[in-house]
Design a protein that fits this description.
- It is built from 17 helices and 24 strands.
- The protein has 513 residues and is an alpha/beta fold.
- A six-stranded mixed beta sheet has the order 6-9-10-3-11-12, with helices on both faces. A six-stranded mixed beta sheet has the order 18-21-22-15-23-24. It has a four-stranded antiparallel beta sheet with strand order 2-1-4-5, with helices on one face.
- Strand 16 and strand 17 form a beta hairpin.
- Helix 14 packs parallel to helix 15.
- The two termini are 35 Å apart.
Length: 513
């Protein structure tokens, strides 16, 4: 899929030289160098918290570097604000989108740079320009839809169109596939190719190795804030990239021994429910999970997984059907009652349901237990017990930076936020753990770690329901795989016999013979 024909190795569009960025005494970027040419895809690879986003926030004017220089087409520039970066032709699409939900696609794209005729915004002119850009780069969007009604994939295309509308020549995409389905990822790769074919340069912040080998010409590796190397992607293997990124060899397979499942823990029968539009989405859904087994629920996003997990955790009501934990009916109970019945969960949206971002990390670690001993006594919080508990968990679960227990959870990188949730939920010691895309946005080192803990839960005789869009993850962890399609189970296979093609076929609605 190489497109070196568009690349012009003689034109360096962006050069970052010896960039240092400190936050107080913490050095996030320690003398990093980067050179990006016209028409190339340049990946920036590193673990969570390695300093990738910080470096790009310096390039797009959100942060000022502590020291170092930035050159655009050979000329030194001082990027003092995001608006100035945008004027220079640098645009960034952030990992968590910055769109206004009740506004339309067009309104979001032109926000702040509205074309005016007299005193009136010329919406027709803007809409035509949006359509022209979306056709030119084959990015299908509905210019009149409200953001709150469109898929994550389309929201991302809106963000890309927003920077193109402002004339970006260099596009920075931060973890662009973290929340996309496999089909949307293919679409994004096509868009990236169309952009570079048109002479744009794309900088891709990622820790997904497959993506780099599929799309990038060059890759710069950063580890713990330091520059490691820049390599030509066609010259290296995924394993080499992984070990440069983590600083050690990484195992891509999961160690787990065979074991017989025990008692039935979760029993879901004939569940019916509607989605947010009032359309039926679970249409007689059944699933059973026993103690000591990992059941993987595979499927393309939008087939009812979200609604199922919301019903299981008490965030949404089912129309009919039964959900039993150890034979006790818990359907449509409150989240607290369900938690007390023995269910803990790693939610899909860590910022919305997993953490209270303004609370300290240590308080997030005891969210469900702060009223209990030793964390409180007669209504008074025991700060020391909470602090000691958090320090222990942060060490055990490798949450970085250490010593940040009292900082708000929102200051951590996405991957470290995920580790805080996993540390909390795994140590809740409940009979059933529901893990929804538990490694979304994590790097290979952290993925290995999370997988180890999920298997450990299973080995301790807990029941684990893994809901994930990553087929590799489902296949390597599950003892049994159930495929959801159109609100029902469309087929079941044992984990050790699973085949990617067969699962893909069932995920698209094909029936197993």
């Amino acid at each position: 899929m190489s497109h070196e024909s568009h690349m012009d190795p003689t034109t360096v569009v962006v050069e970052m030289r010896d960039i240092v960025k400190k936050f107080g005494s913490f050095t996030a970027n320690d003398h990093i160098n980067l050179k990006v040419h016209k028409g190339e895809v340049h990946a920036i690879l590193g673990e969570n918290g390695a300093g990738k986003s910080t470096l790009m926030n310096v390039l797009c004017g959100l942060y000022r570097p502590t020291s170092g220089q930035i050159f655009l087409k050979g000329k030194e520039v001082n990027i003092s604000s995001p608006k100035y970066a945008s004027d220079l032709g640098i645009g960034m699409v952030h990992q968590h989108f910055m769109l206004i939900p009740p506004f339309t696609v067009t309104e979001n794209i032109i926000l702040g740079v509205e074309p005016v005729r007299g005193l009136v915004v010329d919406v027709k002119k803007a809409r035509d320009r949006v359509m022209e850009l979306s056709e030119r780069y084959s990015m299908k969007v509905d210019p009149d839809a409200k953001i709150q009604d469109i898929s994550v994939g389309m929201q991302q295309r809106v963000e890309i169109l927003k920077v193109l509308y402002r004339g970006a020549e260099v596009l920075i995409l931060d973890e662009p596939t973290a929340s996309l389905t496999p089909q949307e990822i293919d679409g994004l790769m096509e868009i990236i190719q169309n952009l570079t074919a048109d002479g744009k340069s794309v900088i891709l912040i990622t820790h997904k190795l497959k993506e780099i080998t599929a799309s990038s010409d060059y890759c710069t590796i950063i580890r713990q804030g330091r520059y490691i190397d820049t390599v030509k992607v066609s010259d290296v293997s995924e394993n080499q990239l992984a070990s440069m990124m983590v600083g050690r060899d990484v195992k891509f397979t999961v160690d787990k021994k065979e074991q017989e499942p025990g008692d039935l823990v979760l029993d879901v029968r004939d569940l019916h429910a509607k989605d947010y539009r009032g359309v039926e989405i679970l249409k007689g859904f059944n699933i059973q999970v026993h103690a000591g087994e990992i059941v993987g629920l595979a499927g393309v996003d939008g087939n009812g997984q979200t609604e199922l997990v919301e019903i299981l955790s008490g965030l949404k009501k089912a129309d009919s059907g039964s959900v039993k934990m150890h034979g006790q009916e818990i359907v449509n109970h409150t989240p607290k009652q369900i938690f007390e019945a023995g269910l803990s969960s790693i939610p899909a949206d860590r910022q919305k349901y997993g953490l209270i971002l303004d609370f300290s990390i240590e308080n997030n670690m005891v969210l469900q237990h702060f009223e209990e001993e030793p964390y409180s006594h007669k209504g008074m919080l025991n700060k020391k017990a909470i602090h000691d508990h958090a320090t222990g968990l942060m060490d055990k679960f490798d949450v970085r930076p250490r010593g940040a227990e009292a900082h708000p959870a929102g200051t951590l990188s996405g991957g470290n936020q995920q580790k805080v949730i996993i540390a909390r939920e795994v140590t809740n010691d409940k009979d059933l753990l529901i893990a929804v895309n538990p490694t979304r946005g994590l790097d290979v080192g952290a993925i290995e770690f999370v997988h180890k803990y999920l298997v450990e839960q299973r080995d301790k005789g807990r029941a684990v329901l893994l809901v994930s869009f990553e087929l590799d993850e489902i296949m390597s962890l599950s003892d049994r795989i159930e495929v959801i399609f159109n609100g029902k189970i469309n087929g079941s296979v044992s984990g050790k016999d699973a085949d990617e093609k067969e699962l893909g076929f069932m995920m698209a609605g094909g029936r197993k013979e």
